[in-house]
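Here is one chain, start to finish.
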Amino acid sequence: MPQQGVRKSRVKSAMSPQETLVARIIQTDIPLTARPFEAIAQSAGMTEEEVLAASRGLKARGIIRKFSAIVRHQRVGYTHNVMVLWAVPTERAEETGKILSGYREVTHCYERTPPFAGRYNLFTMVHFRSRTDEALLREMAAAAGVADFRVLRSLEEFKKNSMEYF
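Its structure:
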């Protein structure tokens, strides 16, 4: 019986050699093809289903959290970026987040707790093809019903890669 006040940690089972190989490959760039897991399988000497099963198992056990894309936005023509900080009543944060994230220029939208500067609790990363972005930001603010927001412009990009564990 555990001592009072001591919590048992959730132990994750060890990774199989196949899971380790799959994890090593998927932590890097995933091929941009119609069947990326098939391409991974070929490079790993596995079947596509084995790669998918290993990936699902890693996710189910909490070893990996998610798959996500890192968009190299400048390579696709989006040369200007802004982080917009929105002051939104807490009870409207989810609704407002859905409105703002509905814009194709928005790549990130998240709630920050505690709020920055005591009031900015919703953050969006917005990408533009040109610097004339004020009209779109005003449109977004009107659609979301938010008048209080701050715009922080990206001046330089420092990092665009993921952690490597293997």
